[in-house]
Design brief:
It is a single chain. By secondary structure, the protein is mainly beta. About 0% of the residues lie in helices and about 50% in strands. Strands 2, 4, 5, 6, 9, 10 and 11 form a seven-stranded mixed beta sheet that branches. Strands 1-3-8-7 form a four-stranded antiparallel beta sheet, with no helix packed on it.
Length: about 110
């Protein structure tokens, strides 16, 4: 069964860091582009970052460039999102997105003092 499972969300203070993980199952992970999305409270889901199958190419939303880093481990079928200098506007449910419109259940990130 094709699925992805996010983890790592937490409550963090402004200026803090957090690393999200996404575990992929049921498909050849190394063959596919992967993405992170987020959905802030009361807002639409938005693309945060994407990474090519080999990890050589990445792209980011303007709002996170220079602070977030997407990466992957194709041996372990894992996707990551390192988030630094977090601000309250980063509060959202973060989702891993894979092939065939595969979404995880999301992991909550709350940035608050």
């Amino acid at each position: 069964q094709v699925r992805v499972v996010e983890s790592g969300g937490a409550l963090v203070q402004p200026g803090g860091s957090l690393r999200l993980s996404c575990d992929a199952f049921g498909f050849r992970f190394s063959d596919y582009e992967m993405m992170w999305y987020r959905q802030p409270p009361g807002k639409a889901r938005e693309l945060v970052a994407q990474i090519s199958p080999t990890g050589d190419t990445t792209d980011y939303a303007d709002s996170v460039k220079g602070r977030f880093t997407i990466s992957r481990d194709n041996v372990e079928s894992m996707l990551y999102l390192q988030m630094n200098s977090l601000q309250p506007k980063a509060t959202a449910v973060y989702y891993c997105y894979g092939p065939w419109n595969t979404w995880g259940r999301g992991t909550q990130v709350t940035v608050s003092s």
